[in-house]
Amino acid sequence: MARDKPVVGKIDIPFLPVLHPPRKRIISRRVNFRLCARRKNRLLRVVLVFRAMLSPVLRSPVETNAAAAAPAQPATAHAGSPLASLPPAARILRTAARLFYEQGYHATGINQIIAEAGVAKATFYAHYPSKDSLGAAWLAQQHEAWVSWLTERVTPVPDARRRVAVLFDLLEVWLRNNDYRGCPFLNTNAEQPNPPDALRAIILQHKNYLRDYLRNLVRAALPGRLEADRMALAAYVLFCGAIIEAQAFRDPWPVRTAAQTILAWF
């Protein structure tokens, strides 16, 4: 036989589950605090408040704050956006380039790229069989952009010493415009202790190209100097180190210091 529940006034007070578990849980979500205050029944008020706190309809401050602070859904390639006008392969690559650079290659998943690019999963894999193939395409695109940038903005400068100064000036502008996010090749290489072969090959290709480019700049600025090659390697180290330190400090002073050091050799 089920036990009778105590009745105080006209309020139905179920037993608390931890003390007397009934066969059917009865959860009272409405608490008449006005009647409790009028009768000044302190014990009853404590029981009612405690019972209301156990009610599943209430949410903790942590849950409430988490819900309020939840980020909005990322923008996708909806109709009418510039991204939606691109072919699927270009849309995927552009979306991946943004996410890889902003979030990091390792932290960005394929599902997020598919969602924000607005393509089907089958379409994604038809163009890029794996994440590594997409990452390799992204780094190859970045390398081509660097080559075009140096060829168009630095190489045409007639004075050899001035070419070095222009290179570091452009580096400072590039870092500032990208919120000091740094070099995508250095970032991708540092994210993983052993990057995939497809990515590492392009990283080495880019770094070798940059080292050779700086060697040619320094050789032109120091014609006939036996130590030109050694100083060119030092210039390359200063160039890459300036990128890393500017990213860490979020300030251009490492780039300016490296440029002043190299220009003092000439």
Report on this structure:
By secondary structure, this protein is mostly helical. It is elongated and about 60 Å long. It folds into 3 domains: 7-67, no CATH class; 77-129, Arc Repressor Mutant, subunit A (Orthogonal Bundle), CATH 1.10.10.60; 130-263, Tetracycline Repressor, domain 2. It has helices at residues 33-39, 42-53, 61-68, 88-103, 110-117, 121-127, 131-153, 160-177, 184-191, 197-221, 228-249, 253-263, and strands at residues 7-8, 11-12. Helix 8 (160-177) runs antiparallel to helix 12 (253-263) and helix 11 runs antiparallel to helix 12. It has a two-stranded antiparallel sheet with strand order 1-2.
List the helices and strands and how they pair.
Elements (H helix, E strand, L loop, with lengths): L6 E2 L2 E2 L20 H7 L2 H12 L7 H8 L19 H16 L6 H8 L3 H7 L3 H23 L6 H18 L6 H8 L5 H25 L6 H22 L3 H11 L3
Antiparallel strand pairs: 1-2
Helix pairs in contact: 4-5, 4-7, 7-10, 8-10, 8-12, 9-10, 10-11, 11-12
